[in-house]
Amino acid sequence: MSLAAILAVLAAAVGAAFALARVLRRRPVATAVIVDPAKGTVIDDSGAFRSVQAADLTLPEEELERIWNPEHLERLARTYWRFLSRVTLGLVHVSYGESERCIVFLRRPLVLLRFKAPEYELDDDRGLVRWRIEDGVLVSRRGKGGDGYLEIEVRRRPSPQPGYAVAHVKIEVANFYPAIAAGFSRPVYKATQSTLHVLVTHSFLRSLARLDLARSRVGRLASSDPPAGDGGSPPAEARRQVGSR
Questions:
Q1: pLDDT for the residue numbered 219
Q2: Is the distance from CB of 225 to CB of 61 less than 8 angstroms?
Q3: How far apart are CA 135 and CA 176, in angstroms?
Q4: pLDDT at res. 80
Q5: Is 78 exposed, middle or buried (0-12, 13-18, 19+ CB in 10 A)?
Q6: Considering only CA atoms, which of 3, 228, 28, 237 is closest in space to residue 124?
Q7: The whole model's pTM is what?
Q8: Is 196 exposed, middle or buried (0-12, 13-18, 19+ CB in 10 A)?
Q9: Virtual CA dihedral for 130, 90, 180, 173, nearest 10 degrees?
Q10: Per the omega criterion (within 30 degrees of 0), is the bond before 109 cis?
């Protein structure tokens, strides 16, 4: 790598560190409590891993209602990728394609994970964004082009506090065949990549208490630029299936 490239990486890392510090100083709008299931990470007989982390965000009802729409679901997805870039000081980032999303280390061709374009679902009580795993350095041969996916699910739940509601946010990786487990061993994967994933995901879930949702890079579900055939922001009864984007 050239000196100019190294300096560029360092400058990006410093900028990301300052940006993250500014976010962390913002006052939380909600309270976030980690509520992982009893068996957050499991492996089946075929070697497929499933990892689930979750949090309950308690916030004012009107605030949750304000952001319960396709645009903010898309922004939540973008916020996840932005957080990943920030915590890695810009060394890992997401590359956007027309029909794919790639997690890249530094720059191509170092693609850690490649996903299909996200799929969105939204109704009155549940929102979902799912990225199906295609391939990447972190995926073993068996897992390429399979049924693996990463998804963020949000469910609305009542709160015992009058005037408040709970947004249950769950992040799940399923049917994932890690290259580290195949090339080395399952214990090595659990002690390295799996543990790091859980730590980063918990940090992301806690950061949602600030409701600092990033603007989408694609913006296909933004109310100012609604999906084709829609004259405006989709009403509740029309938001059942937002579809693949």
A1: 78
A2: no
A3: 10
A4: 97
A5: buried
A6: 237
A7: 0.80
A8: exposed
A9: -20
A10: yes
Q: pLDDT tens digit string along 142-170?
A: 999 989 999 999 999 999 999 999 999 99
**CA-to-CA dists, residue 119 to 15, 132, 135, 175, 221, angstroms:** 31, 9, 17, 17, 12
- At 48, the amino acid letter reads A
163 torsion bin: left (phi>0), alpha (psi -120 to 50), beta (else): left
The residue count for the chain: 245
Task: In whole angstroms, give the CA distance from residue 93 to residue 80.
Answer: 11
Amino acid (1-letter code) at residue 47: G
- Put residue 204 in one of left, alpha, beta given phi > 0 → left and psi -120 to 50 → alpha: alpha
Residue with tokens 């933004």: 222
Spatial neighbors of 170 by CB under 8 A, at least 6 apart, are: 52, 53, 54, 152, 153, 154, 155
Mean of pLDDT over the chain? 85
CB 208 within 8 A of CB 169: yes
pLDDT in tens, 5-30: 444 444 555 555 555 555 455 678 89
Find, among 167, 166, 173, 169, the residue nearest to 198 by Cα.
173
Amino acid at 165: A
Helix extents (H) in 108-194: 179-183, 186-189
Q: Are 54 and 205 in contact (CB under 8 A)?
A: yes
